From TrEMBL:
Protein name per the record: GNAT family N-acetyltransferase
Annotated GO MF terms: acyltransferase activity, transferring groups other than amino-acyl groups
Organism encoding this protein: Rugamonas aquatica
Domain of life: Bacteria
Record bears the keyword Acyltransferase: yes
InterPro entries referenced in this protein's UniProt entry, alphabetically: Acyl_CoA_acyltransferase, Bact_Acetyltransf, GNAT_dom
Residues annotated as signal peptide: none
Sequence ranges assigned to domain N-acetyltransferase in this UniProt record: 3-150
Alphabetized UniProt keyword annotations: Acyltransferase, Transferase
Amino acid sequence: MQIAFESPDQPEVIALIADLDAYQLSLYPPESVYALDLPSLTQPHVRFAVARDDGGAVVGCAAVVLTPEYGEIKRMYVQPAARGLGLARGLLDLLEGAAREHGCPQLTLESGPAQPEALGLYERHGFQRCGPYGDYPEDPLSVFMQKPLAR
């Protein structure tokens, strides 16, 4: 398994993001899915990580949006067949390192209550629940989390 920063603008990655979109829309109505589109993921202040299996196939991804106030985790997804191998933890570690290098004081994320496995992963990784941040509205289908980063 390999995890590294790559461009999201690759056919295999685009297909994985389409799988993520379909998964999210099976859990939540469109107005409660706060996803970044492909052009947003290619911006200079966004770092996009890709997880590949031993054969080089894309099996996971995640991004961090770097701002002076926080690094926001977005587009976190590992294909069901590749779960349980530590890829999500590896993706989070890589993104956290990028946020630290950028000088972000904390990491934030928005997830949903229908994803208890993801929420458990974030809690094990040191995230705690918080209120909405940035431009997010109050939404009963959103769970907001943050993790301070030591300087």
